[in-house]
Amino acid sequence: MDAYDSEAGYKVKLRIAVCLILIVVGALLVVLTDDIKTGKMLVLQKVGLALMVAGVVSILTEVFLKSRTPPVRPPDYSRRTGIQMLSLVRQGDDRYQAWVTVTERQELFFAGRSVLHRIQYDFDERRLPLLEDILWRKLAEGTRIQILFCNPLWEQVECLADGEGQPREKLLVDLLTSVKIVKILHAKLRETDQRLPGEMDIRLYKELFQYAYHRTLNTESGESKMYIGLYFAKKEGCRSPLFEVYDRKIQEQFKDHFHGVFDRSHRLLFYPRSGVGMRFDEDLYREIQEKDIPEA
Questions:
Q1: pLDDT, tens digit, for every residue of 214-255?
Q2: Which of 116, 136, 223, 225 is deepest in the core (most CB within 10 A)?
Q3: Superfamily in which the 83-290 domain is placed by CATH
């Protein structure tokens, strides 16, 4: 029985108690005025009868009618379902950085056009440490991290920029910035003598999808969050609305989609648990550096 049912039961008992009091008071008035047939005291006798009738009718209504009618529950706004828009512009929304302050083990999956450059930009705005330092700390905490962003070598990158109404050079610079962050993180991991218990997999995709994806899961408390951004025509992705997905079935659809894209994408950096067998695709990195991309 939840709090609502307990409160409803209490109110039923209270109403029945009031009805019994009416019956008792009415009966006393009738008994005390039983020998009186005329005068003002006769009014009290009639009042007593009325109280008795009202009490009996109320009890019969409560027991035989209301008990068979399902209660109308007030809407529970804490139990949200489906997808809800949280903000008209997702750029800079504080909810995107909530994972940083968590110290328990997590599962993190971030996907979008360039992802890492945007996270670092938000960190700079809040005077947080460098992204590579925070990711290193997350690995030390035992967190599993998956990151997916667009491959700068994909021939459709310029079309993506045109579709969002942003300069081609800007998107290429953003992608290059994200790749450089991965390179710096790899160097930091290679230089450490610690075997970090976490796991990280960063991949580059070459296919079209219209969502930015942000999923976090605290593996100790079970609390999870899933945020979705949409890529609209002639609007830079980070300036589109922010949505949160509450429905478990819808969450599974997004999870299946992005895990499918992730599995098909090219791995740039992989850090297994404890770091044994860490891999970084130097050839891909060199090819990206040799591409005619403006300097970041």
A1: 999 999 999 999 999 887 656 565 667 899 999 999 999 999
A2: 116
A3: Endonuclease Chain A (3.30.870.10)
